[in-house]
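Methods, example record. To illustrate the input and output format used throughout this study, we show the complete record for Transcriptional regulator LrhA. The sequence lines were provided to the predictor; the line carrying structure tokens was produced by it.
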Amino acid sequence: MSLVNLDIELLRTFVAIVERESFAAAADAVHRTQSAVTQQMQRLETQIDKPLFRKQGREKRLTEDGLKLLEYSRRLLALNDEACSAISGSTLTGEVRLGAPVDVADSMLPNLLQRFSKMFPSLRMTIDVGRSPFLMEAMKRGEIDMAISPREHPEFRRITLRTSPAVWICAADYRYDRTEPLDLIIADEPSLFRRTALDHLERAGIAWRITYVAPTLPGIRAAVRAGLGVTARSVEMMSPDFRVLGELDGLPRLPDVTYNLYLGAAPNLAARRLFDSLEAVRM
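The corresponding predicted structure is encoded as:
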């Protein structure tokens, strides 16, 4: 296929169809009739000489080529809009509501906020620090626009921020007696790290007992610092007065934890443009 110049207007309509999950909803978003949107997609398919959609029952799903084009379309649109803003002297304004778990508030969050500020200095950020499951629920309800989470949520667009080792953490002077059940410090439900710890101990056949349950990370830190037991967390929780127990101590290896930045299903315009710009430059 010879190289062609993709039409930005057609790509914008294409992305709108995917994000709003119908041609009719996309037509409202781009201020066109549904028949005009259909014609635009026919033109785009002609340009790339590939079908973008396939029928599945009464619905239309993206083909493999459609999925490939979607990724590039979002990046091209973000770069196009950023270039237009820079040339015109306009800037992204408004408020973006971001949720972040306590685990990353002191580690990756400052760098992320710094990046936001450099890209769009007039943007106002509202930060909600809390537990990941509750932040994701808040994003689903539209109370926040974006959230950082180590959980898998394939229904939302995401950018991977960091993959960190998960480890067994205890106080520096804590002594683990392998002849006794492991003293566990865990969060109450729902908790990814709680489930990970219990699953891996069960698989390894290691006896355990819960000595402390906390609803927040500061509570878990306090219990670990007091020498009440061991907890499973990502390395972001480490501090000079903690140490790591590993396979040499008889504990199973834990899987790495991937932190993703998720975009809600109905974010405001500022949040959408910010996310698109971040995605375009591949943080």
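Annotations derived from this record:
The mean pLDDT is 87.
Residues 187 and 215 are 5 Å apart (CA to CA).
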